Amino acid sequence: MLFLLFGIAVGVMKYMGMGFAADWSWWKVSIPFVLAAIWWAWADASGYTKKKAMQRAEKKRLDRIERQKEELGLGAKKRK
Fold it and tell me: Higher confidence at residue 77 or residue 67?
């Protein structure tokens, strides 16, 4: 995602003729987009994206269970 944001920023700078990117060729400006595509291809092929999605779903599930326990009064409170 950072490659994409950087690429957009550099592309706008090149188009507007501002900053360090004004003198670059369009080939140099397109490098962050190529890197973003490579990153996404690797993340999908390696299972990184799926693993992160499963971790988020598991955290959401555990948070929901903990919230329900607290609502029922079965939370981490110590009984006397």
Answer: 67
State the Cα–Cα distance between residues 1 and 21, nearest whole angstrom: 20
Half-sphere exposure of 25 (CA within 13 A, CB side): 2
List of long-range contacts for 27-35, beta carbons under 8 Å, 24+ apart: 31/7, 32/3, 32/4, 32/6, 32/7, 33/3, 33/4, 33/7, 35/3
- Whether 78 has a pLDDT exceeding 60, the answer reads no
Determine the 3-state secondary structure of 57 from DSSP: helix
- Cα separation, 4 vs 49, in Å, equals 17
- Residue 14 neighbours by CB distance under 10 Å: 20
pTM: 0.61
Please write the tens of the pLDDT for every residue from 17-40. Answer: 998 888 999 999 999 999 999 999
